[in-house]
Amino acid sequence: MTGPARTQGVRRHNLSLVLRHLDAHGPCSRTELARGTGLVPASVTALVADLIARGLVAESPFPTLGAPGGGRGRPRRPVRLASGRVTIVAVRVSLERLDVLAADLAGGTLHQTSVPHRASFGDAGALATAIAAAVDAERVPGRTVRVAIAMAGPITGDTVAAAIDFGWPSTDLRALVAARLDDPPPIDVVNDANVAALAEYRALAARGVRHPGTVAYIKADTGVGGGLLVDGRVHAGSHGTAGEIGHMPLALDGPPCACGARGCLAVYAGPEPLTRAAGIPSPGSGEALAELDRRLHAGDERAVAAVREAGRAVGAAILGVSALADAGEVILGGYLATWEPWLAPGIAEQTAGRRALVPGLQPAVTRGVLGPEAALHGALQTGRDAVLSDPSAVPVPGTDRARTTTARK
Questions:
Q1: What sequence ranges are listed for the domain HTH marR-type (predicted)?
Q2: What is the pTM of this model?
Q3: Which of 380, 384, 364 is nearest to 199 (CA)?
């Protein structure tokens, strides 16, 4: 029993190796794939044939003359990632809306939308129904679907351990969504701040930012969250809560937080306390945040003071995560990135003492570049990475129930 399992595992690994090489380097000949992956040419030929049969790789219709590097040789027929077989559906859940992004394996966007879910506080079933409808709307005949759902809260496996902002107890969201789908596809449930952290990390690296070994991420939008990256990978901790900076207590006798503690970062830099401090009606709503943005740009003194004070709270959180995890960089996301110019004085004020004492040990503070779509793009990367890691999970067309039920409505 162990022999076949081991062989199957090796083949899965090698299929992933070839597919990831094409993803990283673009179209390659089989010879270039053998050289780049270290696999023998005969194995590469068989693996490429398997990937073509699954629809994950396509062969160029036009051969390239000459050998790699410009020398003479027989015509090459490069292979590349195919776009027509897999749809990755990313769903980002906020308090009021579902942001949905569908893309192909080659990275092309197929469809993007944002719709209200109208699920009431505490009703996980209604939200699962809305997510299932959004997934069904992206199903196209002939394409395998992979789904990644990003939302706030500590997540272990596919279980949301505590969705404080949504009023749920521990909930298996994957099972709830799958039960509402005919022939449910593979579904991953991920923490929105963790995948946003990963997306920002990669986006900044693509722009030339050289990250240290340990990076913390703090974001604020509908709530305050965070993530911790070690050597470019999410470090989730023992219970999926590592990097939950929004619920890091900053004051022993601070205001009560919905998480059960007092004085957390969220009660100082969250949307409701921040907009309330700025004197804006309907605090915490999207309209209130937009109004705060308008007032900041207009130089409104109360708005500027409120955000500066929130910057002091963010600075205290930076000191805490720096002391605990020795983060060499802190990436700000969401409106923390947007309003960094108004937050920066408060951050600098709070961190000045330690920076003066040990200047070389304080983390760099970097503004994220993806804005409110960071978590959505991070969820998309999660789904895409799952396909790249296990191409054998994508069936050969005509040999399975290929997740092709309904076309987009």
A1: 17-59
A2: 0.85
A3: 380
